[in-house]
Design brief:
By secondary structure, the chain is an alpha/beta fold. Helix content is 28%, strand content 20%. Strands 3, 4, 6, 11, 12, 13, 15 and 16 form an 8-stranded mixed β-sheet that branches. A 7-stranded parallel β-sheet has the order 18-19-17-20-21-1-22, sandwiched between helices. The protein has a 7-stranded antiparallel β-sheet with strand order 2-5-14-7-8-9-10, with no helix packed on it. Helix 2 packs parallel to helix 3. The protein is globular. One of its GO terms (cellular component) is cytosol. This is DEAD box protein 1.
Length: 768
Amino acid sequence: MSAFEELGVCPEIIKAVEEDDWLLPTPIQAESIPLILGGGDVCAAAETGSGKTGAFGLPALQIVHESLRAAAQAAVVSMKPNQASRGCTLDEAARDLQICLGDGERCSCADSRGWRGVRGTAPVLAGKYMYEVEILSPGLVRVGWGTRLGKLEIGKDENSFGYGGTGKKSWNGRFEDYGVQFGAGDVVGCLLDRSNPDRGTVSFAVNGRLLGEAFVLPPALRNSALLPAICGKDFDARCRFARLEFPVEGFAPVANLKACDDARCLAGETPGKSSAGVQCLILEPTRDLALQTFNCLKKIGRYLEAPSIRVALCCGGDEREQRGEMAKGPHIVVGTLQKVSSCIHRGVLSVKSLKLLILDEADELVKFDALSEILKIKRAASVGSSRRMQVSLFSATLHTDDVRRAVEALTERPTWVDLKGKVTIPDTVHALICPVFAHEGMPFKSASLGRVEPKTDGIHAPSAALPRHSEQFASQRVKEIKPHLVVALADAFKMETCLVFCRTNLDCDNLELFLTSCGGGRKFAGKAESGKENPYSCVVLAGMRSQEERNRNLAHFKAGDVRFLICTDVAARGIDIHELPFLIMTTLPDDPDLFFHRVGRVGRADRMGLAICLAATSPEQMWFHRCANRGQGCRNTRLVKEGGCTIWYDETACLKAIEDRVGGPLPRMDAGNFSCPGIVDPLGVLGDSAGDNIRKRRPGASSETGEGATRRDASGAPGPVVYGKARNDQNLLSTMKHLQEISGAVSELEILEREMQKQFVTLAARGI
């Protein structure tokens, strides 16, 4: 039994999430899914990366699907009773390649090495139906029923039921004695009784002799359509879907399936027919996050059918394409508040049938007086309807005054699911501070030093032209040091992929130019067959880039085509990048909540992550544009209080605010060798062990036991941690143990090889 099944999730969604390795629900999913399925309003807060999208996405898909199916069933019942049946044949699209079909009822397979199968086309949801299989050859045959999600080798999973010629019935891989054996010349009847919605049964007959009840349908399959199915080895058989040789009283041939019992009729809605409105609306703060949620819902709902779910994206871009999607009558719409509101006001999107409103990243959505616009959407959906709309709010932080006002205005007696509690850094993340000293030079080694000078934001002249003890000198030195530090950290930790946060779009552009120059000056222009052609390849995800470019850049980074993704907070909020190991903040945020959102990009799905924060020990003068053109061509370097567009930014104060929220100081890295005792030692200067290397880390010591305690091996030493990989990956631990065992021998081989090369060169020079 799946863990998601205990939450009330339907089998079609369970199959989709388990294929994506969602084997266990996260705490926020375990708490929120039953509450949303129960129909109540929910306000949920959990740390970033805890699976909030799944917490509202799974129940939203199921609620909409159940609502659509109920409406379709009501429409089917109202059909004329004499409406023609759609019949039943063997399905060309649901067979193994080794199966040969003929005249829609004959099937054969000459392969004796494995079980090969085929399904019929009639999906039975209700009623009492049967079909027969005449065995024409001595091969092994198994007959029965299965869902579209089941294996073609019926009886081997929880989605199919089989009865074989050896006198065994099978379900979910369990074989039990049943009935009699059958073979060539026999006719096997397969009977399905779904007349009682609470207790469906499967039974069989051989040559007209009823063998009794074989299976009772499990609760998980009571809403799933079952289709005729047959499989075997080296067999030849003929299915009889219409004309039965041994009919059973009360059971109709499956070819005569009534429309009200046929799942195909429930899926027969044509595009545009649901133009009465959308059933579920999910609002996101940014286009990128809306696209991510849209793709997630499409993936999770891919097995929902009879009827299928139409999900549409409404967040700007191609106006004609999105208007076309709205015209098809989507059941779920994911979009940004501004675009959704515009579509509603122009009549492109109807919310008259809206049942479920979800606010993702609610703390960000309700900023800047956006609550009034959300209330307009709710009022528009409630006009002329007595139906109560279900509202859910999700975010990493739900305790701000803006969010509390939104909860009071939008919800009715909501259930609070607060798994955030005290703000903490996930235990899968090592968050370290790397101090930047303006007056102490650059104590670290970087491949960029002496080769490339970074372009800064232009507030100051180059540091060489400024008085050494002035505030402007310290500010400019910080701007010059940080890009070199990014390169040094990436090389020291051998970061194959890294997310880099910058404060402004201009900072993103300058860092992109610097990294590209460090790698030879060739800017990333798309995936190359030879891999990353620039060792410091990078792309930008920032607000000033076009949506098409942002989508393309994010896709390239996720695919591993580039090494660095440079982004701003707004563009990267909520973005999920699978197994992201490293993150660098070039500037600490002035809002502690943003710090936790950034840190949450790594350490997701129980993978370890390293977040390095560059923190200047002296104030830095930065742009803070208040001008009408928002910085375009602005060169007013005076302070804001003097009518200009700059501020003095104190990262020391930002760090103190963050540490106050965390409840303690964050670990500091050595500014020269990037080591932090007990956590990281990329260059091996601490000498923890002879086998230490760039990719091996040791978690900090802990005196506690239990979930947060440090893992230790048999000798009592902390276990190795590899960023981007699961903490308890046994294969990884075994590999690391083996590497440690052979590290001494490899070191000796390296010394021997070096000595051999020296001797060879010496002897060659002597002419020997």
